[in-house]
Amino acid sequence: MDAPASPPDVEVLRPHAEQQFAGELAALRATDDRPRPANWLLSPWAVVTYLLGGTVGEHLITPKYVGSRRLIEVAVATIATDRALLLLGVPGTAKSWVSEHLSAAISGSSTLLIQGTAGTAEETIRYGWNYARLLAEGPTEGALVPSPIMTAMRTGAIARVEELTRIPSDVQDALITVLSEKSLPVPELGTEVQARPGFNVIATANDRDRGVNELSAALRRRFNTVVLPLPAGVEEEVRIVAGRVADLGGSLDLPSATDAVAEIRRVVTVFRELRTGATEDGRTSLKVPSGSLSTAEAISVVIGGLALAAHFGDGILRAADVAGGIVGAVVKDPVADRIAWTEYLEAAVRPREEWRDFYRACREVTG
Ligand SMILES: Nc1ncnc2c1ncn2[C@@H]1O[C@H](COP(=O)(O)OP(=O)(O)OP(=O)(O)O)[C@@H](O)[C@H]1O
Ligand SMILES: [Mg+2]
User: Fold this and answer.
1) Residues pairing with 115 in the sheet
2) pTM, whole model, 2 decimals?
3) 205 Cα–ligand 1 center, Å
4) What is the pLDDT of residues 136-146, one digit of tens each?
5) How confident is the model at residue 67 (pLDDT cuts 50, 70, 90)?
6) pLDDT-derived band of residue 128, with 50, 70 and 90 as boundaries?
7) Residue whose C-alpha is closest to residue 138's, from 146, 129, 147
């Protein structure tokens, strides 16, 4: 396997995990003396440390995933077996994020990726042809366009399949041979590609989508499923949002989020209360809006607020900067969600003495 990718030469908007964290990956690699599965860049133990954070020697490894260690251990252990990994969960629970970091840590590359859609065809999973060359040369190795899965099989790397259950079932089934026989036949050339050790698949699926039921039983048996939960408590969720906001804000040149924690806590509280249908003290029950109100959306609301504060305010994140974003996230359906939101404002927000500014700001944008 090649060494992990180095940072890109020119500035890019979003470096891949293996580029952004090349330093951490190199530090882990340098000190990792535990056994590694064939073609893995790191031992399973070091992969878990990369995801959850820690220190190796003098090097600080930042936590990428905040949550249960056991869950990540199960995910990593699965990839070391001959079973593929399915990360399942409601929107915004870091399924894609974890999948990207796992493949970056294990194979040094997170880019062998298939984005599943209703239009994903079998060639996307198996291989296609360069038609100009196919016409000129006939079916040859040179005319074949390998899929990310085929490339991963050849190199012994991890391939990622995003939103597996959006792919039509008959197309999904192209994965069965790959996962059980570890082979991809190419009848046109009379050959096959046999997977090298280290090859595996990490798929993600959203259990709110119409969906996971459409995963055929035959395919489901080839996967171990790990369910990524919503953050357990307010503090954990605040930590996730603050961490990601600091990271994203830095790359967007936004003001530092350190003095924004109080406002972040408020956004997270609103999201959690509406998601669960009850205020934090459990005294008032609330209508649950239709949107997912995920951690990922809370991150977007805060980033949007910071941009407002930076460009049109005094650089400090205030209630008025996040109010618009919150209303946008909550009111997806103009009738039912608006009712839920207005009731929430009156029943839960208004009575809170120290939330006056927030109530006023929300009222202003709600109309
Ligand atoms: N437990 C967590 N630890 C760290 N980051 C998290 C956690 N939960 C959510 N996030 C953050 O939320 C953002 C969204 O995550 P991601 O896009 O991976 O979600 P997803 O589960 O793939 O959602 P979708 O189903 O919509 O595709 C990421 O920036 C990630 O950092
Ligand atoms: Mg995703």
Assistant:
1) 162
2) 0.92
3) 12
4) 999 999 999 99
5) very high
6) very high
7) 129
Residues 152, 123, 227, 233, CA torsion sign: positive
Amino acid found at 341: W
Annotation: CATH topology of 17-227: Rossmann fold (3.40.50)
Tokens of 336: 């039912």
Count other C-beta atoms under 10 Å from residue 309's C-beta.
21
What does the pLDDT read at residue 218?
A: 85
Say yes or no to pLDDT of 213 above 60.
no
- Nearest-CA residue for atom 26 of ligand 1: 91
Confidence band, pLDDT 50/70/90 cuts, at residue 181:
very high
Provide the b/e sequence for 187-223 (b: ≥16 CB within 10 Å): eeeeeebebbebbbbbbbbbeeeeebebbeeebeebb
Residues with CB under 5 A from ligand 2 (ion): 95-96
Residue 66 alpha carbon, nearest atom of ligand 1? 3
Using only C-alpha atoms, the chain has a radius of gyration, in whole angstroms, of 23
Ligand nearest to the CA of 302: 1
**In Å, how far are 28, 41, 244 from 32, measured between CA atoms?**
6, 10, 27
Q: Phi and psi (nearest 5°) for 21? A: -110, 30
Mean pLDDT of the chain, nearest integer: 92
Q: H helices of the chain, where?
A: 17-20, 22-31, 44-52, 69-79, 95-107, 122-125, 131-137, 148-155, 169-172, 174-181, 217-220, 234-251, 261-276, 295-312, 319-330, 336-344, 356-366
- The band of 59, judged by pLDDT with boundaries at 50, 70 and 90, is very high
Token digits for 281? 């003290």
Looking at the CA of residue 162, tell me the nearest atom of ligand 1. 27
User: What SS3 state is found at 19?
Assistant: helix
Pocket-testing residue among 20, 96, 234, ligand 1, by greatest number of atoms within 8 A of Cβ: 96
- Give the closest ligand to the alpha carbon of residue 102: 1
Average of per-residue pLDDT across 156-176 = 93
Report the nearest atom of ligand 1 relative to the CA of 67.
Answer: 1
Minimum CA distance residue for ligand 1 atom 23: 92
Nearest CA to ligand 1 atom 7: 94
Reported as type and span, the H/E element at residue 185 is: strand 183-186
